[in-house]
Structure formats: C-alpha cells, structure tokens
Protein 1
Amino acid sequence: MVQSLFSGQQKRIELMQPHANDQHNNALEAFGRLLAIMGELREQCPWDRKQTMESLRHLTIEETYELSEAILEGEMEEIKKELGDVLLHIVFYASIAAEGGAFTISEVIHSLCEKLIYRHPHIYANEKVEGADGVKRNWEKLKLKENPSRSVLGGVPHALPSLIKAMRVQEKVSKVGLDWLGNSEVWPELEQKMGRLPKEMKPDNGKFAQKGEAEEALGDLLFSLVNYARHIDINPEEALERANKEFIRKFQAVEQKVTQKGEQLTQLSTEELREYWEDGQKG
C-alpha cells in the first residue's frame, strides 16, 4: 500500500544516485512500519482506541510548540524526536478519518502532492518567476484562483497567537501588492505610532486618559513593529521568544545568587532586587 503512494515518482527516483534511491526505499519501509504500528495500536491499545480528533487536538498543539522550541534551541536530536511526535499525530488523525470512511492517509498525501505540483508551475510547467519572493507571490495568487470568492486573509487561523497573526496578515496582503515600499516608508510609520502613545496618557500621574484609546494606540505600535521586523527580515515571534529565554536565564541567575546568600526573593526590596539584577548584567 505504501509503495503505491509514491509510484508516480518512481521514474524520477530511478534516475537518482544509488544513495538517494536507498534513502527513498528506507523512507518507504519506515513509513510502512509506522502505518502498521498505528493500525495495531488502534486495534489493541485501550488509550489509542479511545482517542478522537478532538481529544488529540490540544496534544498536537503542545507537540508543535515543543518542535518550535527544539528548532530555536538548534538541538537536532530533539528536533528529530519532536518531528516524530508530530508525524505520529498526522498518521493518527488520518487513521481515525479512515475508520470513519472520511479519507485515508494515501488521499492526504496525494492531495498534498497535487497541490505542490499545481502551486509550483515554475518547476512543473513553463511559468517564469523571479526568486523566492516571486514564488511566494505566485503561491498566493494561485490560492485565490482556486477559490476566487475567498478573502486573501481567509487562510489565517483565528486562533493564531496575535504576534504571529499580525505577521501572517501583513505577509499575505503584501503578496497581492498592498505593502510599504521599504524601510524608508516603514520607519516613519513606526515613529508616528510611537509618538501617538504618550498623547493618550495623563501628564500628571502617568495613567491613561482612556484605556480603550491607549490600548488601540499600543496595538497600532505593536502592529507597526511587526511590520518593521518583517521588512528587515526578522521573525518577530522568534525574536521575542529569544528575548523571553534570555530574560528567564538572567532572572533565574538572580534567584540562584539570592539563594546562595541565604536570602529570600520575596523579602527583598525593589532596590535590593535591582542591585542583584545590575550585578548580573555586569557579569
């Protein structure tokens, strides 16, 4: 069964070097083994039998975040392990669907292959595109052609974290031509948003005059920061996560120093904590 999934690529594989051909055959064997094990687990394991798509959903989200963390850490062994966990979930969902007569893993893979071929006409047809950006623009245009009534932003999940969602929204509209021309336009926009926020504050006590207006101003500033990061080719989600990790590392070092001196964090004054923090920055 697994062999048939890849039969359409057989001629191409035969033209490859023996090493590449061996990798392909090993992949077929490994995937077939995984499908067989999944089938056995669904038949014989009480926990696996009990699972539904709904019960797996939150676990899949957790596994995806674990993969993301492993990628940021650059730990290849962990990445390999987490990729396996994500692959397991894909096969799990497809097995549940097949049991209900909805679709099979073969249909999932064939559908993906057809989509990849259709959306890469510069590889599988005679269309010309300019560089990676041209490929991305063409990809979005082909998606709209498949479903003309669908919004350009229709593919952005509502449940995405806000920072990632802002980046994806900006990327998608840029692919259809709505974008700033470059950093020379983006930075003034960012400065304008930064200038707006203080105007929403009371000068006497530093409190916001209207929380709703201040929230809107801060949201505009964050959205513009994401836009600027995109234009200088920085992923804001990854940048913020690295900042989170660095802050956690530094704060935990402060906790360790406080403990080593026989003190308790909660009993220190703000000034004393700042001294510990500043000493840590010097180190």
Protein 2
Amino acid sequence: MKVIAINGSPKAEGNTYHALNMVGAELQAAGIEFEIIHVGHEAVHGCMACGKCAVNKDEKCVITSDCVNAVIQKVKNADGIILGSPVYYSGIAGTMKSFLDRMFYVSGANGGFFRHKAGLSVCAVRRSGGSSTFDSLNHYLAYSEMILATGNYWNIIHGRAPGEVEKDDEGKQTMRMLGKNMAWILKLIENGKGHVEEPAKEQKVFTHFIR
C-alpha cells in the first residue's frame, strides 16, 4: 500500500513538510509506503471551468503547462491521499487551491477515481486561521467520497520558522494519531476486499435553485 502526500507550501521543507513527515513516519512504521510531492512552489494555473476533462474523459486537464496531470496519475494509483497546506489569510495557499480545484475536478469528471481511498488533511499555522483552512481542505476529500482518517484534535500544528512545529507537543501527537489511524483504515480497507461488499456508486444528481 502507498500514501501520497501533497505539500502545498511554497517552502519545500517548511512546517507543512514537517507535519506531513510526522504523519508519514507512522505510516512507514506500519509498513505503508509514503511519498511527499511538493507542488506549492510550482506555477499552477487555476481551473478555467472549460469542462473539457468531462468531455474528453482522458483523466487529464487540458492545461498542460504545469505539474497537475502528472501528479493526478500518481495520486490515482495510491491507496491514500494526504493534503497539506500552510494557512494564508485563514485559507488554503493559492497555488495549492488551484492545484486541488483541478485535480479533484478531473477525478470527479472521470468517474471519481479517488472514491473510497483513505484521506486526511493537515495544515501548519503561526497563530490562527487553522480551523477554516482545515475545513476547506476536507471539502475536497468529503465530496470525493473518500474515507477520512481522524486524530484526537483538529489536524493543525503551530509554528512560524521552518521546523518550529517540532516544539508543538500537542500538534505532534495529533500528527502521530493521524498516521496511526490512517494506517489502520488502510488495512481495514485492504482486508475487507472480497469480504465486505462495497456500496454501489450512484450517478451524481445535479440541481440548481432557478425555478
């Protein structure tokens, strides 16, 4: 089994990276492969709402000038996904937001290939805004019918200078619990195959409020 973590921080080894590694250490201790993909420093175009990914059905975004399509295929083939972002104005960092909008839209437009994977999100923050960022990251996972791993508190760790999160004992415990719980969920999913019937997928119903 393998888990891919997406580092949405511009800093390759900032506090988001340290938080992801704390989760990853527990996954690796449980025998699960773990990889961090850094996208926060990339020039990622926002979604243009062209809908071509739904028309072409090729599991690709029509924008080919950045890393999104390559990462989509790596994440599709993983068993679990972790989303990590720093907190910018109480929200997801801009590049990460653009990346997630496109990656998850392509998945949904192509049959929802993140469905029933294990997922979790973490964010690193200096002081406040972590809860709203954590909530926003979870929107992608919940909408995709993923199975969320949880910890014993909100998935937020505190620090300013890179590496300072190592001093946040409560935050570190949360990251450890996330890793342990995700490993447990992944093993439950794997061991349930062929024994527990998976819920049938339903065609998405779209409505709006114009009458």
Protein 3
Amino acid sequence: MNKRVWIIIIAMFISLPSFAFSVREKSAVSIYEQINPAIVMVDSQLSDGLSCGTGCIIDKTGIILTSAHVIDIGKTVVVTMNNGQNYNAKVIKHLGENKDIALLKINVPEDLKTVKLGDSEKIKVGEKVLAIGNPFGFNGTLTQGIVSRIDYAKNRIQTDAAINPGSSGGPLLNTKGEIIGINQAIYNPDNNISNIGIGFATPINLVKEYLKENNG
C-alpha cells in the first residue's frame, strides 16, 4: 500500500469523530428527542409568589405527573408545552409529605406524546441516568449522571445528574427512555448557591402503586 493511500485512511479516522456520534451520545440524543416533547413546564401561583417546576405527560389525554411541592396549594396552575403553548391545569390528585406526588389534567384537542413508566426496583447503583427539566426557567434542559445511591429507608434515589430549582417534578430516566424516578430535591447546604451533585428522586414504583390504588 503506497504512502498516499495510508494518508487518506488516517485522515478518514481522524475526521470520523467530527461527524459521528458515539453509541453513548446516540443514546442520549435519541432519548432526549423522544422524551422532550412529553415534558412540560409547571407554574403555580402561590400567595407569596410563583412556584416553577417540571411535569411529565403520562397519558395522551393530558394527564401530567409532577411533584406536589411544585404546585403546593396554588390558586392557578399553568402548564407550558414543549411547543410553547399554555394551558390552565386542574389538580386532580395531590399527595404531599414523603411521597411528593401530584397529578394535573389539561384539556387538549389532540393526543399528546407521553413518557413510559419504568421499574425502579430494577435499578442499580452506577447505572447511567438522564434528567430533563426546566432549571431556573431554562426549559428542556438535559443532564446526565449515574445512580449514586438508593435509600430504601426513605424511598429515594440519589443521583449526581444535575438537578436544580425548576427541575422538580421532571423525570429521571434510564437508558431505555423510561421514567425510574420523579426528581424531587437537591442537597444544598449553601442555600442554592451551588449544585454539589447530590440530588434525589421519588422512585417511580411508588407512583405506580399510588396510581393503581386510585384507579381501583
């Protein structure tokens, strides 16, 4: 093989990363493109200001799963879709305290994209996870990390995927694009000055049990 052919082959390998995604990148990109249309921004007007968070569409008719603390006892709850359209939402279920789960309903003229609920009992520490949310109002933000710890006593999944104010109620996803948890809180000893990589999510199996109980 002459020198010119070798130069061409080497140049091809050098330039390959510039236009090709790795398998890991493809997974994150495809999950985001699949799931983000089913993620919404949730704004709740409280007596002392505005509470902002994230929600996941779990039924094509407009049922949205979020965290109870996002809506609290807000007088008005507004959902902003991925396409920027706003809807007034009705709170149909609210379970606060440790479970921190709420269900909203919006009336829409067409079927919506939804997110599939996974199985949080199958997750392992070290497993790759992704989070989609609206931190500080930056809607449709994707972050990724791993399952850092599973707190069975408190029913919480710990992750180092970046979760910030506004991300609550958003999905913690496995690499199949299934929800394994609902992002709930971060450990922030400095009062939101920085994210130190300790976030928590409510296991999705708790949510599934709750939905099953309330559907008879």
Protein 4
Amino acid sequence: MASPGEMIATVPLSEARARFSTLYDAAVDAGQPVRIHRRGDEDAVLLSRDQLRDLVAMYISHVHVIPEEVTGGYTLWIDELNIGEHGVTLSAARDALLAAVRAYVRDYLERYTFYRHFRDKVAQYPYVLRLSLAQDDAELKGLLFAPMAPPAQAEQR
C-alpha cells in the first residue's frame, strides 16, 4: 500500500473518501496507520484510538491535593493544565475538578487553532489529547485520580 519511499501509506483525500471502509480496517483492525493528504494542506493520519492512547500514555496529569487548613476543604490542582478546583470534601473537590477538566478539554480542542500560537498551551496538547480519549466519566476519573492517594481521614471533615 505504501510507495517504496514511504513507511506508511499516503492516500489522496479523494481516494480516501471512496475507500474509507478499507482504510479504516487497515488502520484500526490491522494496526497500519494511513496518511491522508489533501493538496496544499497538512496531512492527517488515521489510526486506532488504542494506538493513539498508547502514544500519549506517558503524558500523565499529576493532581495535587492541597488541604485548606484555615477555610477547610480541599483544593485539587493539575500542574500540566494549570487548572484547579476546590471542594468542602475531597469527593466534592474531585467532582468539581472532573467537571472543570471536561470543560477545559472541550474548550481547548475547539480553540486549538488559537491556542497553538502559545508555547504553554502547545505544551498542554498531549495531556489534553490523552484526557480527551476517555469514553466516559469513569475512564476520565481513572486517568486523573488513579495515581492519587487521598490524605488520611480526608472524607471525615
């Protein structure tokens, strides 16, 4: 499928439209990414969700738990995305952060053509992409909170 100089197949967009089912099977079922080229534009690559998830697996968001001793509650902060949320309990803070991350990922992807001009936003892209691949809240929680151990007696406040 690839020409002698290519390592993965490149298919013109017009041909990709006509052969999408076959190309999809090659990329997803057979694990063979396909480069799709539109004249004058950047190329796109068709690959499976699992392959993409593997590529961004190392971009783990680190959630910091900050107990608020004076006001009570907890602040959760993600350095890689520069976002945080507060809750009166650790569970409430997690729920608030989950909602904030969902909103941030949607906004980031919708505004990427703007954000790609800022170095700090470009650095966030692999983290945003990794989180965007979550199929539901349970998977997103696992991506965000699995490595996080709650502080002792966190829920007793």
